[in-house]
TrEMBL record:
UniProt entry tagged with the keyword Repeat: yes
Protein name: LRC46 protein
Keyword vocabulary terms for this entry: Cell projection, Cilium, Leucine-rich repeat, Repeat
Family matches, as PANTHER family: LEUCINE-RICH REPEAT-CONTAINING PROTEIN 46, PROTEIN PHOSPHATASE 1 REGULATORY SUBUNIT SDS22-RELATED
PROSITE patterns listed in its UniProt record: LRR (PS51450)
Species: Peucedramus taeniatus
Region (Disordered): 138-162
One Pfam family named in its UniProt record: LRR_9
Localization in the cell: Cell projection, Cilium
Length: 210
């Protein structure tokens, strides 16, 4: 379990990487408030649990495991990006998804075949920017932030940071997303994902292996 990987020495200040370690469960460990990124892809994890040890987590990757239910995520109020692709999730309870999510990937799960799947997820997550690597259009947060046009000259002239998305997307896709959503206030919230720049290539490799 994840417990067996708890180090006795100093911890990294931001990221824990335990992908491909044959981990079968997420055990209870001591509180790690400095951790913002947790990589647990390509293991044998069957249940989402004990994540309250990471109260400031912003990025969580559980792709390629054996998870059957989305649960126990409400303890992560700052979670921005969640990768649960290629698990065993047959039915999705959107009430279990943190409302802070901006990027969500459930590709490769049976739940994506549910009637009205995309509409249900978008209704539950007003801040969502990307769902299964596809851009989100016209949700409530976007309309409240000024609709489809710039709400002020300041926003129009504001230089947007280059978006670093921790999912399998190519450069042309990122350019298209910039053009489509440029000038909208929601882009300010994507700045929290800048810290994942170095991880993009790794996750591309992971999806290629799947």
């Amino acid at each position: 379990s994840l417990c067996s990987f708890s180090p006795t020495g100093p911890l990294p200040t931001a990221t824990i990487r335990l992908d491909r370690e044959d981990i079968s469960c997420i055990g209870r460990i001591r509180r790690l408030a400095l951790i913002h990124s947790l990589y647990l892809q390509q293991n044998r994890i069957e249940k989402i649990e004990n994540l309250d040890s990471f109260p400031n987590l912003r990025f969580l990757c559980l792709a390629g495991n054996r998870i059957q239910r989305v649960e126990n995520l409400q303890c992560l109020p700052h979670l921005s990006a969640l990768d649960l692709s290629h698990n065993l999730i047959q039915e999705l309870d959107t009430e279990e998804l943190p409302r802070s999510l901006q990027i969500l990937d459930l590709a490769g799960n049976q739940c994506t075949q549910q009637d009205g799947y995309r509409d249900l997820v978008l209704a539950a997550l007003p801040q969502l920017l990307l769902l299964d690597s596809q851009p989100v259009h016209g949700n409530t947060a976007e309309e409240e932030a000024g609709g489809g046009s710039c709400s002020s000259e300041e926003e129009e002239d504001e230089e947007l940071p280059e978006l670093r998305i921790p999912f399998t997307v190519d450069r042309d896709f990122l350019v298209d997303v910039h053009r489509e959503l440029a000038g909208r206030a929601r882009w300010r919230r994507t700045m929290s994902l800048e810290e994942h720049r170095a991880r993009l290539e790794e996750l591309r490799e992971r999806h290629a292996l799947l």
